[in-house]
Amino acid sequence: MKMDDVKEVAKGLGIKPGKMKKSDLIREIQRAEGNEECYNSGKADQCGQAGCAWREDC
After folding, report:
1. Shortest CA distance to 26 belongs to which of 13, 43, 39, 42?
2. Domain Rho termination factor-like N-terminal spans what residues (predicted)?
3. Res. 58: pLDDT tops 90
4. Is the alpha carbon torsion for 53, 14, 5, 28 positive or negative?
5. Does the pLDDT at position 3 exceed 90?
6. Contact present, 10 and 29 (Cβ < 8 Å)
7. Which of 32, 48, 54, 58 is the most exposed place for a label (fewest CB within 10 A)?
8. Under a CB-based contact definition with an 8 Å cutoff, are residues 52 and 58 in contact?
9. pTM of the predicted protein model
10. What are 15-40's pLDDT values in tens digits?
């Protein structure tokens, strides 16, 4: 997902992206959604969130 798309998702959740890095912003989105903040942490095989919107990028 491109950064502009990530920013739109964030704005929809009331998160102000500012100059956040993509990975930090996605983890903030995960936090706001009540999910584990695991994006780009190397735990893709273990997170158990097969339906995660960020899975392909992770």
Report:
1. 39
2. 1-32
3. no
4. negative
5. yes
6. yes
7. 48
8. yes
9. 0.87
10. 999 999 999 999 999 999 988 888 98
> What is the 3 state secondary structure string of 7-41?
HHHHHHCCCCCCCCCHHHHHHHHHHHCCCCCCCCC
> Encoding tokens for residue 16?
């102000």
When pLDDT is cut at 50, 70 and 90, the band that residue 51 belongs to is: confident
Q: With contact defined as beta carbons under 8 Å apart, do 26 and 54 qualify?
A: yes
Query: Can you tell me which residue has the tokens 């780009």?
Result: 40
The torsion of the CA quartet 15, 16, 18, 19, rounded to 10 degrees, works out to: 0
